[in-house]
Amino acid sequence: MKHFYTFLVAILFTSLGFGQTVFINEIHYDDASGDSGEGIEIAGPAGTDLSSYTLTPYNGNGGTTYSTTSLSGIIPNQGGTGYGTVFFAISGLQNGAPDGIALDNSGTLIQFLSYEGSFTASSGVASGQTSTDIGVSENGSVEGESLQLSGTGITYTDFTWNASASSTYDAFNNGQTFSAGAPTTSVQFASASTTVLEDVGTIDLTFEITNEDATNATSFDVVLTTGDAADINGYTTQTVMFPAGSATNETLTITITDDTVYEGNETLTFSISGVTGGNNATVGLQATFDLTIVDNEAAPPVTEVAFQSFEGGDSWNYTTDPTTFNVSGAVWDVADNSFHSFGTIPSNGTNFFGIQDLNSTNGTSGFGSIDFETISVAGLSDVVVKFDYEVDGFDSDDDMKYELFEDNISQGEVVFIDGFSNLNADGTIEINVTPGTTNIRLVVSVRQNGGGDYGALDNFRVEGFYSGLTYANGSWTPSAPDGTTGTSDAIIVNGVATLSSDVSLNNLVVNPGAGLEVASGTTLTLNSLTLESVSTSYSSLILDGSIAGTVTYNRSVNSFTNDATNNDNDLISAPVTGQAFGSFDSANANLLASGTTRAFAPFNNITGGYENYDATTNAATTLDAATGYRTATTDGGTLSFIGNAEGGNISKNVTVGDDITYGVWNLIGNPYPSYLDTETFLTHVVSTQTSGERNIDLMENASGIYGYDGNASDGWKIITLANASGELIAPGQGFFIAADGNDVLVHDIEFTPAMRTTGSSDDFIAGRNSSSLTFLELNASTANNNYNTEFYFNSNASQGLDSGYDAVIWGSSAPSFALYSHLVQDNTGLPIALQALSDTDYTNVTIPLGVNANQGEQLTFSISETTLPSTVNIYLEDNLSNTFTLLNTSDYILTPNTNLMGTGRFYIHFTNTTLSTTENVFDSLTIYADQTNRSIYIAGEVSENTVAKVYDIQGRLISSKTLTTNLRLQSIDVNNINPGVYIIELSNTSQNKTQKVILK
Known about the structure:
By secondary structure, the protein is mainly β. The chain has six domains: about 1-180, no CATH class; about 185-295, Sandwich (Immunoglobulin-like); about 305-465, Sandwich (Jelly Rolls); about 555-755, no CATH class; about 775-920; about 920-1000, Immunoglobulin-like.
């Protein structure tokens, strides 16, 4: 701030005297006799009050002041010029050399002039400033003379100082004329706006001139600053000229385009720029002009893009924060009039979103939000977002506001309810969307407390006009396309449109969440078919017939944030195929790149890494069906794929590579431009089967589908038969599978048309869990890390290894921060990320947990999500601290004093009863065989001397070992024991535990 202040002062004081309208005009300080009539004359605009001005004489020897004269009076209008002078007698003005005089206004220095040289002031209003020598002096001049400014103008810089001449106190000086010169020429629009019909033909823009110049013509450009030039015959900037001496208005003729497409009323704005000629010509006050064109085509029916009235099955999905609740006296959930009787709500159907005491223990003291998903409005005009509201008894702590996002840019928050004095209010909010916007998102936020205050929201909808054929809510408007509609555009807004006979169109767009089915034997002929997507919803094409025309899929792709953890990439596959990478690369400027290297990489399981494509080397490489790629964008937008829409059977060869860690992993993807039913994909029996082999059987035991959710550090989105029901894989979605080394030698992974389906769900990045299965997702977190593990309860699963149901951590090795589980039975030490158990096990089962975490970092265990019955208690056991924490009601928080690594300390208990620390210690011990190391492991601590004995199936004692107390992992060497079934017995003075193990 100090440097800015210094700079500002320098600007002020280096410009002293320049352009001043009140200034020193005449000085008399010396004559040949007794220095009579000394003083200073001030000049300036007539009417100026001089009472705030001061004259301060300065002694040039030392730069100090020696008197001060406060001015007074009003500057008169002399000679009708609008300017005048006032003389102030000041006796004793020093004669130099040098000396000076300062003029200030309320302490602000205006001028610091000197005569017979210059100097720097050391005090007073000019302290620190150097005077300006006027260049003339008196030096004993004849009495009655003075130093005066002369010339023509109105400011100080217009005049020059002259040698002594007869004084002209209280009058203009000798040779001085106050005049601003010829008036400045200006041009402007003659009016601000007009409105015309689209079929008017032409319209003249009229311009007027002020203070035209007699000898110089005046010209300027007329620029279209907003609006579409196509609406006015492809308008380009035009030049208009006023001839010299002409005051006659000039015009510019604009031709209005009369098309046959409904566009709604459109306003175009013109502006004047590049004014030249005249007398210093400039733009007048009316510098812009608005031309509104009224569309003469009949408006098409309103297209309802999205709708949510909380009746079920509505198209505009939403999430809430906090999650919904509905208890006595506190509601943040879908409700009906039994909750509260409103006057205008519900406005559609019988349900609405009800709000009461949001500031309860279930809610939040701040704003709760209802976040509606992003939807496409591309191709629509006059788009408006609407919703209804009603509040009863809203006081000063109760508010409602909305925030609209256009193309991911917030348009700002708008408060529509500012509660006070038990406010009752209702109405409809209408939000106009900026023309040209391609997608929107709405967030409504509410702050509310008190059981006697009620709020309701209902009937959310997005509406707009589309000039072509529209499919929405199950029907076409104004008519369905057919073989005669080849010049028409069409859009599928929501739902699934089915074409069962040949159709011709110009351009067809399928919105995110909507679908198109082309039936067998049907041909769709068009210029272009564009399938759209956003991060939370994808369009679908199910092609059983044929398409003659270009198919483009604009596939939403995650952005690169370069934080090494979150949202750095995406896994995708080509939703349409056969495109050369070079063509794809050229069409997508937002594909992340470095030099010629592109962030577009298949996975090589021979080297165990991704291999980015090169723009030159891979230019001819085709994007094939079912191949997965790691990619990223610079903006989180879409990548455009142009190619063939797959609709038949597709085989994908998967392999086991040479890499020790990642050799079994294959990056593949959904080959269709439609959603893929995950359960159908996993259970599909491959065409080359010999023993009923399915796709899931071609994957390693304890594996499934591994989807990247934007953050690999907290675990992957894993889908097995335990949770596949209802799960859909989005079009163009890539995922990993681990290949079974034997089966993939003779079988390929297969995709079939039967797996295709339509949908509106998101990809793995957005990560909403729509499952209605019975499950628990458990989370461990520190300040900088978090990790999840899952448990599904399924009638086809058991406590042992269930092929196709259980799944290990991606890569089969737990990272440095991790949470996982071990199998309850037949445990072999695998780090399980998703464990499936019987659908009755949640009533009484104990599961070992593996935890990797650093010493000294606070660690929190919590439930991320669960659909278990409310009667099931979920306990986290820490056997080191001898505690059981009911996670249903609270988190378990600790700060470990040593690094945590593996199993043995923590267990998760599912029970219908209450646990205590007196439970059998042996219940928490895990016994499993490590086939590779030929060892039997006992995980967990024993608190007293315990003996572990190994018996064969005939009950003969094979081996015995005394366990060490307070050691969490101990082993028994079985290298010398033959393969077979064995019984492990743990016993001490008070407890006993036996378990079967298999040695292979």
